[in-house]
Amino acid sequence: MASLARPGGNVTGFSYMTPELTGKRLELLKATVPGLDGVALLWDSTNSHEVLAFKELEVAARSLRVKLHPVEARAVNQLEAAFSSITRERAGALIVFENVVNFNHRRLIIDFLT
């Protein structure tokens, strides 16, 4: 496959795994939250898809003048420490990359936010 935009061959479809849209999502978030200057990110640096998305997010954050606060949680037992770190950073928003831990324990994340 050459790229998601031009995969080549005879296959038609789509993918939700679009790291190149991560920057656009941050741009929309900044437009939605007036005065947003800091965003926390809950992610897993061992997930190759998330690494690509993170790189895109870093570029977008620099151009939008948004401070990015990456916080890792690779297992459910790391979520509490991640939540403490996010709280300390006082970020104006939280981006949660979808992975097994975050998906399976989304109720914990929602409870943290409410």
Structure commentary:
The mean pLDDT is 85. The chain has a three-stranded parallel beta sheet with strand order 2-1-3, sandwiched between helices. 46% of the residues lie in helices and 14% in strands. The protein is of the alpha/beta class. Helix 1 (22-32) packs across helix 2. The protein has a single domain, classed as Response regulator (Rossmann fold, 3-Layer(aba) Sandwich), CATH 3.40.50.
How large is the radius of gyration? 15 Å
Number of domains: 1
Number of strands: 3
- CATH fold naming: Rossmann fold
Class inferred from helices and paired strands: alpha/beta
What key phrases describe this protein's structure?
3-stranded parallel β-sheet; 14% strand; 114 residues; alpha/beta; globular; Rossmann fold; 3 strands
